[in-house]
């Protein structure tokens, strides 16, 4: 039985519409797959690009990024490069885990970041060392991560970080008084507290070590020199989200991440 002309024409128009729609969807699907291959992230995008390496990971160069990997594993595969990159991007930029998973296909940031954070923290600890046999001045700054959540960072006068405390909920003054870095000071060594504008000198009173405290003026040379000495390092620390305004979804790894960032700053 032959269909009426008007019905046949309507069916043909419908088939043509469906055909065009299917072809459009197929084209969009092919385009999406093409784009996915083009935006598939890996450590390859920073290889040979020191500027991008520094922005994404904090490492001053790709060579230093490689050095960090080799410090942890002697023979790093591409997958390990990517896992390190994801971990450092979290510390540096606090990129959302779900977005990291999209950028790095087949990556599970939530399972990658905590063990890498722990391993990096252990292996980079050697980069934060108190100077041995050096009677010198030190500079301490107390950085507020969040209201009443502070971390104490001690610098040498050349800006190298030689001590970092755990993040503790304390007022900044109480935190300074409780920090155990004072046990590392030798007699007559000085430490400048730039936050409270105080000069502390370790003195021996009848066999008991005490810190003698002197208030510093804004234009005091010892104060201005101390501020200038640590300014570049402070700026680098502040470029890390973990020292700035990080959403601490990895609260258990926070102190590890703080020390990793501090160690990377010492690379510079």
Short summary:
With 268 residues, the protein is of the alpha+beta class.
Overall strand count? 7
Order of secondary-structure elements: HHHHHHEEEEHEEEHH
Average pLDDT across residues? 84
| Proportion of beta-strand residues | 15-25%
Q: What about the largest sheet?
A: 7 strands, mixed
Helical fraction = 40-55%
Large-scale geometry: elongated
Number of domains: 2
Query: What class, by secondary structure content?
Result: alpha+beta
Q: Give the low-pLDDT segments.
A: none
| Distance between the ends | 85 Å
Please give the count of helices: 9
Cα-based radius of gyration, to the nearest Å:
28 Å
Multimerization status:
single chain
Description:
This protein is an alpha+beta fold and 268 residues long. The protein has two domains: 43-127, no CATH class; 137-265. It is 48% helix and 16% strand. The chain is built from nine helices and seven strands; from the N terminus they run ααααααββββαβββαα. Strands 1, 2, 3, 4, 5, 6 and 7 form a seven-stranded mixed beta sheet that branches. β6 and β7 form a beta hairpin. α4 packs across α6 (109-124) and α6 (109-124) crosses α9.
